[in-house]
Each structure stands twice: as structure tokens, then as C-alpha cells.
Amino acid sequence: MKLPRRKFLHLAAGAAALPALTRAAGAQAYPSRPVRIIIGFQAGGQIDIIARLMGQWLTDRLGQQFYIDNRPGAASNIAAEAAVRAPADGHTLFLANGTNAINATLYDNLRFDFVRDAEPVASINRIPLVLYVHPSFHAKTVPELIAEAKANPGKVSVATPPRGTGPNMAAELFKMMAGIDVVLVPYRADAQMVTDLLGGQVPAAFGGISPALAHFKSGSLRALGVATAARAAAARRA
Questions:
Q1: CA 92 to CA 66: how far, in whole Å?
Q2: Is 206 a member of any domain?
């Protein structure tokens, strides 16, 4: 018996939803088999980290394995299409993010309508976006980075996750609002971006806080600012 798409994330959210399952599916328990969580990015990035933590939490509480299916590419459109094409029986979940909303305006040839074909039910977390640099880069504040970029237009590189992702769009907005000419360098994966920043291949990056968190604590990377109204204590050096 198929479980309505509207309900499946409610059920996955916690034990409080289990009575609704009994009413919707009779005596059949949910989940009745392992549950796939599709994500649109490579392993090791912030979305992957969140998905694996959530998958383990659900596995421990619901008694079935929740496993991660990484389907990177096309700014998570490949993963989104796989999710909306899957049977609406509650055993395929998709960890969406802001990129999926952005994609609706960037891509004209999508074979699905994310708003129509998916049902957002639960907000899992919020990830602060951080502008950070290699310690060898002499700018120690956002104003100093802006001044450096204005003094050397087109010569300062800033790494970001793939085009169309939230951090990439935030970096484009930062360029526009600051009136600077920096070269954005999109990477396919957060982990590769952080690795190149640690190695000095790029001096600065705009990305989520998760992949670089340990490096902020150790001092191997320096956070200049966050795209949130309040300070992010986690980005400070220990």
C-alpha cells in the first residue's frame, strides 16, 4: 500500500508520527525495508555530513537502515529528478537545500517541477555561509579583502561550491554589493575546495561552515565573516 508523499518525512521525523502511519497503512509498519536518502553532492561535503548524521539518527530510532545515495552533478538536479521519479511510498527521501529553489530559475529544460513534484515537510538545519581565507593571505577582515580586490581587479580568486549553489550565489551577490572584480572558482565538491585552499592553490573561499570547521579551530584557515545576522561562535579559533 502506498504512503502519501506528504506523510513520509513526517514519519521519518520521529516517533511522534508513528500513530499516523497505523491509520494510513493499516497493520504495515514503516519503514518496512531500508530507506534511501538521496543527496545531490559528493561525499564529505556539508550536505553529505548532515544526511549521514540524520540517517544514523533515523536508523537508531526506527529500526531500519537509512542509507545515503550520493548523486552529484548538475547542481543537484540529477538527484532531485531521481527522487521525484521514485515511488511515493516513503522509502525514498531527498535532502533538499536552497540550490533546488535556485535551479528553478537557472535551468529552462528541467524534466520536473520541484515545487509540484516534491512536498517540503521538515526543516532539518540551517548552515551559516562563511567567507574564509588561507592564513598566508594578508587580508584579516572583510573590508581588507574588499580593499585588496579593488586594488587588484580580476586578480583575487575566491573558491565556491558548484555554480548555482547557495554559497556560489552568495559570492556573486557579495561581488555585486561590494563593487569588486574577483574571479569565482566553482568546485565540484566542498572537500576538494577546502583541500586546495589549505594547499594555497586559492587564497579565499565562500562556503558552508561544516567542511572547514576543524580548520577554523586549528588556525589552518581563517574565517573573515559570516552571512548571518549574528556571529558564528563555531568559526572562531579555539
A1: 9
A2: yes
